[in-house]
Amino acid sequence: MRTYRSLLKPDTARRWLPRALACLVAAVAVGLLSGSWRIGVTAGAAVLIGFIVHTSQRRSEIPQWRRPSSARRRTEAQLKVMQRFGYRVLHARRIQDGNGQIDHFIVGRRGAFAIDSETWDKRLPLRNKLEKLYHGRFSKNERIDEALAEARNAERLISQELGREIRVRAALAIYGPSMPWDSHRLRGVDIIVGTKVRKWLRSGKDRLSEEEIKEIYQAAKKVLPPLY
């Protein structure tokens, strides 16, 4: 939460001064055009709220000096929207007794998900040939298998913590190259167009209660510690 002291810092003041001026200009202009200072104030407040919402969506939950790739930030921004619908999210989690990390762990009404986000060269096409994914002439099967192993490790650890089996659906969110699909399941992993993460999450087959969502989230928070 921002404090008055943080807002008075030079960097913060420089960022917010143009926004404050924009709100003032909007208030004065609308007030003069409408002939009502109340309408002008409302317009200025609306512009301010728009700036606050835009800033909150762009701000990462991961510390600035450890901020990951743009692909992970773009997925994180989409997941912030899903949190408004009851989805719970953890970012940059490591596997305690295994290799690798999970960029985003999500649990909601449609199930539990582990997503890794990456940017690949947009100049090279993606194609599926005999259950193998190629980016140009380069095979991406090893990366797919890594994502699946991470999800399976998370599934195992959370199941052990809860004392019952749960399922964690693995995915790679890819930004850059065009794809002939929004999402495509390959080798046990969903390959998703990066900008379609929210749509993909809603395609889950599970139906979890609020209590189950809370239990899985708390278990994941315990057994998948933060990477940073």
Please provide a written account of the structure.
- The protein is globular and about 65 Å long.
- The longest helix has 25 residues, at 10-34.
- The strands form 2 sheets. The chain has a 6-stranded mixed beta sheet, sandwiched between helices. A 3-stranded antiparallel beta sheet has the order 4-5-6, with no helix packed on it.
- It is built from 7 helices and 9 strands; from the N terminus they run ααααββββββαβββαα.
- With 228 residues, it is α+β, with helices and mostly antiparallel strands.
- The chain folds into 2 domains: 4-58, no CATH class; 66-223, no CATH class.
- Strand 5 (133-135) and strand 6 form a beta hairpin.
- Helix 2 packs antiparallel against helix 3 and helix 5 (141-162) crosses helix 7 (210-223).
- It comes from Thermobifida halotolerans.
- InterPro entries: NERD (IPR011528).
- Pfam families: NERD (PF08378).
- This is NERD domain-containing protein.
